[in-house]
Amino acid sequence: MHECGPHAHSGRTLAESLTTGRTGPGFTVTRRTLVGVRADVVLVRHAEPYLPRPGGPDDYGRGLTARGHEQAQALVVDLVDPRPAAVVSSPYLRAVQTVAPTARTLDLAVLSDPLLREWDSGLEARPDYADHYALSWADPDFTRPGGESLAELSARAVGALRALALRFAGGTVVVGSHGTFIARAPAGFGVAVDWPLCRAMPMPARYRLTFAGDRVHASGPGLHPLDRAERGS
Q1: For the chain, first and last CA: distance in Å?
Q2: Alpha helices, DSSP H only, in the chain?
Q3: Which residue stretches belong to region Disordered (predicted)?
């Protein structure tokens, strides 16, 4: 499975449990579901991973290179201040390994949520993946057999991140995830994000979503104040 730039999972998710309960320029868009809630969600794209190879680890087990581990360690100084209330990650090893040094520094466990996994594109690893990704970005409702559309990914991202904002209201949450997931998350809140931005996303990268009442403010590499589909009142 490719990501921006260079599987389905069953079972009760952290986001489902939370819901049922029981840095750069940015912009503001209106959503009326978290009135009264203030929370910061820091989205961290994983550091440099090993590339997929025949006979190698599957997408869940593909971890970071030595350089990737160095990059993950270098992120700690920025991710621990302000101190997050939790560190949550996609179950994919490269995402977990990227935020693990931060969690260890804070003496926190890395919580796992399969809703934070990368896009289930329906594509096998292939050299021309960028052409297929561009087609999906041109038509976010397009779905390949066995996969999900980018529109469905945005809906998944919004649900997972709203649940985290509700659970950790008043605090900051660090989230380890993946390029396409992180690009489609702001899109789910009404932000105009395109394939060139996704493809150019650094690795690792940090984006911030600030939930403030009925508004979401997003910032990170490539985002611009004018790149918004809706304006807050």
Answers
A1: 40
A2: 14-20, 66-79, 93-106, 129-138, 150-167, 179-188, 195-199
A3: 1-25
Rounded to the nearest angstrom, the gap between the alpha carbon of residue 103 and the centroid of all alpha carbons in its chain is: 17
Q: How far lies 172's CA from each of 22, 82, 107, 183, in Å?
A: 22, 7, 15, 20
- 230: number of CA atoms within 13 Å, CB side? 15
Q: Map residue 17 onto helix, strand or coil.
A: helix
Cα 141 to chain center, whole Å?
Answer: 19
Which pair of tokens denotes residue 160? Answer: 């997972």
CB 173 within 8 A of CB 92: no
Tokens representing 73? Answer: 């360690």
Q: Whole-prediction pTM value?
A: 0.82
Domains of the chain: 14-219 (3.40.50.1240)
Quickly count: other Cβ atoms within 10 Å of residue 131's Cβ. Answer: 9
In angstroms, the CA 153 to CA 157 distance is 6
What is the per-residue pLDDT across 97-142, written as a single tens digit (0 to 9) for each?
999 999 999 999 999 999 999 988 777 776 777 788 888 888 899 9
Cα separation of 142 and 8, whole Å? Answer: 17
